C-alpha cells in the first residue's frame, strides 16, 4: 500500500465520510461536552457556581474594586455618534433583553401549541401561578405597608425556571413526568405575570416621542409577520432599534425582547408532507447531477441543489421555534451566568448581619418566596380542584403540588431583576432584598427537593 493510499485510509473511517485526524480527536472531546450541556441540571449548576463566585468576590479584599468595575462605562462610537452604558447596565438592560426574548418565545409556544393551549390542562397551572403571585405580594406588603420599601412588593412574585427545573430534574425518575410539565407551565405563566408587573408598575417617567417610535417599530414587526417574512435576521435588526427606542421611552428596555418574540412567525412555510415531496424530488436530481462530477466543489449543479435543500430545511421549521432553540445555550450559559456574577455580589458585614436578617425588606422578600409561594400555589390549586375549575394531571397528587409550591419559591434571576428596578436609588434596600432572595431561594430549593424526595412516592 502506498503512503498516499494509507494516508487516505487513515483519514476516512467509513465509506463516503471524510474524517481528518483532528476531527476524530475533537469528536471524542466534544461529545461528552455536548451531553453535559444538554443535561437539564447544567444551567442551574452553572448559575449556582456563578452566585458563589460573585459572593466570594464581593467579600474578598478586592471586592470593592470588583463592585466598582461593574460601573465602568463601555461605549459604541461611530464617527460623532456615541452610545455608552456601564457594564452592569449592559448586562441588565442589553444582554437580559435576550433572556426576555427567550421567555417571550417560550410563552408564545406554550400559548399556541404547548401545555397552555388547552384550557382544560392549562387551568390548574394558571390558577396556581396566580395564587403564587398574589399571596407573596400580600405577605411582602404586610411587612412593608408604606414608605420607600413599599415599592418592592413585586420582588417575591417571580420564580426562577432554570433553578426550579434544575432542582426537580435532580430527582430523576422519583417524580412523575407530568410534574415537570406542570412546573414549566406554572413558571411560564409566572414569567408573564412578572413581565406585566414590570411594564405596568416599574416603568419610569414616560417620554412620548420615544414611545411613539417604539410603537411604530412594533407595527413594522407585525407588518413583517403578516407580509410573510420568515428570516429571523430582519426581525432582529428591527428589534435592536425597538430596544433603543424602549430604552429612551422610560419603559424598561428588556421588554422589547418580549414584543419581538410575539411578532416572529410561529407557523412554518412548508408543511411536512410538502417538504418530504420536495426532498425526494431533489434527491433524484442530485443523483442525476453525480453523473457529471462526483466532487461537489466542481459540480455547480449539485451544489445549487444542496443549497436548495438547506433552504427547504429552514422553511419547514417555524422561525420562532428555530430561534428559541438557538437561544437556549447562549442565554443559559452566557447571559444568565453573567447576570449572576454582576448582581449576586452582595457584601456581608458580620457586625450588621442581625440587622440585615431582621429588616422588613429581607423578611418580606424571604417570607413571600418561602411561605407565600407555597401557600399561594398549593392553596389556589386546592381551591380550583374543589370548585371544579381544574382537574389534576394524571399521576399527580396534592402532595406533588405542595412540592412544586416550595420549589416555586426559588426566585433568583427574575426576583433580583425586579429588585434592581424597585430600589434603583436605594442601594441599602437593594442589599436587603438580594439577601432575602438568596436565603429564600436556598431554603425553598432544599425544602422542595426534600419534600418531593422523601414525602412523595412514585414508582
What does this protein look like?
It is a single chain. The longest helix is centred in the last third of the chain and has 28 residues, at 360-387. It contains 19 helices and 2 strands. Strands 1-2 form a two-stranded antiparallel sheet. The chain has 2 domains: 40-203 and 252-267 and 318-345 and 352-454, Na+/H+ antiporter like fold, CATH 1.20.1530; 272-315, no CATH class. Helix 12 (272-289) runs antiparallel to helix 13. The chain is an all-alpha fold. The protein has helices at 3-11, 21-37, 42-58, 63-69, 87-112, 119-143, 161-169, 177-201, 208-226, 232-249, 255-263, 272-289, 300-315, 319-343, 353-357, 360-387, 398-407, 412-422, 427-454, and strands at residues 73-78, 81-86. Helices cover 70% and strands 3% of the residues. Mean pLDDT is 84; it is low at 5-13 and 28-40.
Task: Give a topology summary.
Layout: H1 3-11, H2 21-37, H3 42-58, H4 63-69, E1 73-78, E2 81-86, H5 87-112, H6 119-143, H7 161-169, H8 177-201, H9 208-226, H10 232-249, H11 255-263, H12 272-289, H13 300-315, H14 319-343, H15 353-357, H16 360-387, H17 398-407, H18 412-422, H19 427-454
Antiparallel strand pairs: 1-2
What descriptive keywords fit this protein?
single chain; about 450 residues; mainly alpha; Na+/H+ antiporter like fold; 2 domains; two-stranded antiparallel ribbon; 19 helices; about 70% helix
Amino acid at each position: 500500500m502506498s503512503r498516499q493510499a494509507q494516508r487516505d485510509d487513515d483519514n476516512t473511517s467509513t465509506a463516503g465520510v471524510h474524517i481528518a485526524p483532528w476531527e476524530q480527536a475533537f469528536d471524542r472531546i466534544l461529545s461528552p461536552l455536548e451531553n453535559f450541556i444538554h443535561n437539564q441540571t447544567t444551567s442551574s449548576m452553572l448559575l449556582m457556581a456563578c452566585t458563589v463566585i460573585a459572593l466570594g468576590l464581593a467579600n474578598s479584599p478586592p471586592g470593592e474594586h470588583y463592585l466598582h468595575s461593574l460601573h465602568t462605562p463601555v461605549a459604541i462610537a461611530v464617527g460623532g455618534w456615541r452610545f455608552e452604558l456601564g457594564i452592569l447596565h449592559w448586562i441588565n438592560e442589553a444582554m437580559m433583553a435576550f433572556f426576555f426574548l427567550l421567555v417571550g418565545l417560550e410563552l408564545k409556544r406554550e400559548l399556541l401549541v404547548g401545555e397552555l393551549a388547552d384550557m382544560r390542562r392549562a387551568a390548574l397551572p394558571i390558577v396556581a401561578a396566580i395564587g403564587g403571585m398574589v399571596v407573596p405580594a400580600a405577605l411582602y406588603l404586610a411587612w412593608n405597608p408604606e414608605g420607600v420599601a413599599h415599592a418592592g412588593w413585586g420582588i417575591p412574585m417571580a420564580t426562577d425556571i432554570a433553578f426550579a427545573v434544575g432542582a426537580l430534574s435532580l430527582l430523576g425518575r422519583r417524580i412523575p413526568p407530568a410534574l415537570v410539565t406542570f412546573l414549566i407551565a406554572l413558571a411560564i405563566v409566572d414569567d408573564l405575570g412578572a413581565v406585566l408587573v414590570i411594564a405596568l408598575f416599574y416603568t419610569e417617567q414616560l417620554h412620548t416621542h420615544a414611545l411613539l417610535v417604539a410603537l411604530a417599530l412594533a407595527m413594522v414587526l407585525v407588518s413583517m409577520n403578516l407580509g410573510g417574512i420568515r428570516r429571523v435576521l430582519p426581525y432582529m435588526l428591527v428589534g435592536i432599534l425597538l430596544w433603543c427606542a424602549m430604552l429612551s421611552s422610560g419603559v424598561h428596555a428588556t421588554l422589547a425582547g418580549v414584543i419581538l418574540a410575539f411578532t416572529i412567525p410561529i407557523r412554518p412555510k412548508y408543511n411536512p408532507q410538502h417538504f418530504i415531496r420536495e426532498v425526494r424530488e431533489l434527491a433524484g436530481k442530485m443523483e442525476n447531477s453525480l453523473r457529471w462530477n462526483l466532487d461537489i466543489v466542481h459540480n455547480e449543479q449539485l451544489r445549487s441543489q444542496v443549497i436548495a435543500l438547506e433552504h427547504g430545511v429552514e422553511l419547514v421549521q417555524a422561525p420562532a421555534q428555530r430561534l428559541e432553540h438557538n437561544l437556549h445555550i447562549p442565554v443559559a450559559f452566557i447571559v444568565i451566568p453573567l447576570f449572576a456574577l454582576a448582581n449576586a455580589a452582595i457584601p456581608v458585614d458580620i457586625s450588621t448581619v442581625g440587622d440585615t436578617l431582621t429588616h422588613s425588606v429581607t423578611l418580606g422578600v424571604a417570607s413571600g418566596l418561602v411561605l407565600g409561594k407555597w401557600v399561594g400555589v398549593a392553596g389556589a390549586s386546592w381551591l380550583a380542584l374543589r370548585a371544579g375549575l381544574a382537574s389534576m394531571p394524571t399521576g399527580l397528587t396534592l402532595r406533588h403540588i405542595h412540592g412544586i409550591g416550595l420549589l416555586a419559591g426559588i426566585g433568583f434571576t427574575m426576583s433580583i431583576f425586579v429588585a434592581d428596578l424597585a430600589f434603583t436609588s436605594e442601594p441599602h434596600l437593594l442589599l436587603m432584598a438580594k439577601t432575602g432572595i438568596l436565603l429564600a431561594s436556598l431554603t425553598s430549593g432544599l425544602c422542595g427537593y426534600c419534600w418531593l424526595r422523601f414525602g412523595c412516592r412514585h414508582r
